[in-house]
UniProtKB/TrEMBL annotation:
Residues 4-378 form the FAD-binding domain. InterPro entries: FAD-bd (IPR002938), FAD/NAD-bd_sf (IPR036188), RIFMO-like (IPR050641). Its cofactor is FAD. GO terms for molecular function: FAD binding; oxidoreductase activity, acting on paired donors, with incorporation or reduction of molecular oxygen, NAD(P)H as one donor, and incorporation of one atom of oxygen. This is FAD-dependent oxidoreductase. Keywords: FAD, Flavoprotein.
Length: 420
């Protein structure tokens, strides 16, 4: 079969979860994934650690997938300290379980799953892949989408390749659809969803506008050997130059307020060397610390952008393809899973002709404001983390607020997706 109800570009968590939702609703789905191999050390612990919030946990629970996640049962929250009191953080400022008033979230059922847990990206993707395959989703790896065209009347499809007589092909020829090119091959579908991540080709080829703010810093996540670790202070250390933190010995996180220049250079092909990391760590920590070996490293920024519309005709966006922001506060994966949960049943009903007028457009109407709120949440954290006199002043005020009962409850509610 070369015609599908839906083609999804990208087999990340958003694409995989969405594929399962659509297949569960009896739609034929093809995922085209650029990477040949789904495995990456960056998806494994500790780099692959991801905080899941209440809506994500509930969405996985509803589909019977939560129980298949095993690792969180053995994971210790790296931010929780020896006594396990820390529940999370805002801009690196911890809030504690003891201060959170859970009585203010009365709508939770007594047997509801947890409000938050830590998962591993590799395991989550493996669980979602298993479900998608079991439901008949066709996943083709090593095929990067590089061309997209949509048509309202199906005419372009008639002139391209053989017609097939399956239901999806008939729907496409009747109602129009999308032609997708990947790896020199042509695929056809009624709908295309870009779940192809931050640098989405579908977003660009589909004519979407991506607006937002430029980065203040380059973030580093690295596994290194440190010859003289005693030179570094323990915990999350903010200095006039940035921030550094070891989640475990040698697992280094840094924020260097360089306007995102190093990340950009790295993306453009400049290698991330041991010397480079050591220079950054020495500058941020104000020490002469020595990195003796670099095992793996990656960079990221706080660039915050969002597609102004999540739909353009028969092309839609979900996950990082629709919105990017810093990983501070751990919201990106949760947003993507939420997009998928919202879009899946609406698109399926549209495909089957049972959707009321306007149902599909409620995807953008409901999810865009939630994404915009998360982008602002990440921007607010950057403002509080800036190593400037203004940033330090804000940080002190937030520290006071976070340590109140109202403050801790508010921050936990926002981070766990359960409060206002
Ligand atoms: C250090 C760090 C920590 C984080 N911590 C958290 C956290 O605690 N909680 C949280 O919610 N989020 C967190 N995030 C964010 C989260 O990981 C991402 O938001 C999430 O993985 C995005 O999922 P996605 O499926 O939208 O995109 P991705 O995971 O980026 O998947 C996109 C897929 O599309 C494929 N692709 C790309 N181009 C093409 C193409 N042209 N054709 C076909 N396929 C293509 C890619 O190979 C990839 O497999 C963190 C991110 C980082 C960097």
């Amino acid at each position: 079969m070369n015609t599908y109800d839906v083609i999804i570009a990208g087999a990340g968590p958003a694409g995989l979860f969405l594929a399962g939702e659509l297949a569960e609703a009896k739609c034929s789905v093809l995922i085209l994934e650029k990477a040949e191999d789904p495995h990456s050390p960056l998806k494994l612990l500790p780099f692959g650690i991801r905080g899941l919030n209440a809506p994500s946990i509930e969405a996985l629970h509803r589909r019977g997938l939560l129980d298949q996640l095993e690792l969180h049962k053995r994971l210790q929250n790296p931010f929780s300290g020896a006594r396990g009191k820390q529940a999370g953080h805002f801009a690196g400022i911890p809030f504690e379980y003891a201060n959170i008033d859970t009585e203010r979230w009365p709508r939770r059922a007594p047997d509801a799953p947890p409000t938050h847990l830590l998962a591993e990206l590799a395991e989550l993707e493996a669980v979602l892949t298993r479900r998608a395959l079991a439901l008949g989703v066709d996943i083709r790896r090593g095929l990067a989408v590089d061309g997209v065209e949509q048509s309202g009347d199906g005419a372009m499809f008639a002139s391209r390749g053989p017609r097939s007589d399956d239901a999806a092909a008939r729907r496409v020829e009747r109602g129009g659809g999308v032609a997708v090119r990947a790896g020199g091959q042509l695929f056809r579908a009624g709908w295309l969803i870009g779940c192809d991540g931050a640098r989405s080709v579908v977003r660009k080829a589909g004519g979407f506008t991506f607006e937002g703010t430029e980065p203040a810093f380059t973030g580093y996540s690295a596994k290194v050997d440190i010859a003289d670790p005693e030179k570094l202070a323990a915990g999350r250390v903010t200095t006039p130059q940035g921030m550094y933190f070891q989640s475990q010995p040698g697992y280094l996180n840094m924020q260097d307020f360089d306007g995102g220049a190093s990340h950009q250079a790295h993306q453009a092909g400049q290698p991330l060397t041991r010397e480079r990391l050591q220079t950054v760590l020495r500058r941020i920590s104000g020490t002469g610390v020595t990195i003796s070996a670099l095992h793996i490293a990656t960079t990221w920024t706080d660039r915050a952008r969002q597609a102004t519309s999540y739909r353009n005709g028969r092309i839609l966006l979900a996950g990082d393809a629709a919105h990017i922001h810093s990983p501070l506060g751990g919201q990106g994966l949760n947003l993507g899973l939420g997009d998928a949960a919202n879009l899946g049943w609406k698109l399926a009903a549209t495909i089957h002709g049972t959707a009321p007028e306007g149902l599909l457009d409620s995807y953008h109407a409901e999810r865009h404001p939630i994404g915009a709120k998360v982008l602002d949440w990440s921007r607010a954290q950057v403002a509080v983390m800036r190593p400037t006199p203004e940033g330090r002043a804000l940080n002190a005020i937030f520290r006071d607020l976070v340590n109140t009962r109202d403050g801790a409850t508010y921050f936990a509610g926002r981070v766990w997706g359960i409060g206002a």
